[in-house]
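[audit] Reproducing an earlier prediction to check determinism. Same input, same settings, fresh worker. If the tokens differ from the archived copy the diff job will pick it up downstream; this log only records the rerun itself.
[audit] input (118 residues):
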Amino acid sequence: MRLVKLTAVFLLLTSIAYTQNNNSKTILEVDGVCGMCKKRIEKASLKTKGVKSAVWNLETHQLQLIYNARKVDIETIKSNITAVGHDTKTLKASVEAYEKLDNCCRYRDLKVVKDHKL
């Protein structure tokens, strides 16, 4: 009985350590101008299978990610972000995706950026 309990504890600790080792962290630069952009960027990231955490900072435009590198790669995450209309440093959203953004979210428009005081 004691051996079974020790084995169960060992397997649990091993699986926790294994899961934690698969997590990778990275920071991506993503364009946006407001809280609606933040919500959209984070949602697109989190809907990507393997992404565990996504927090975008409006002031720095940095998206901090925690993801399972065995389930997803950075390019897939970037593709999902650009699909909802937001550019990354290395991958740009299509014109069609960008034009679906609300007018207040049009970060390529200098007037919009100025109106948001960025």
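[audit] rerun output stored. Observation attached for the diff report: The radius of gyration is 19 Å.
[audit] end
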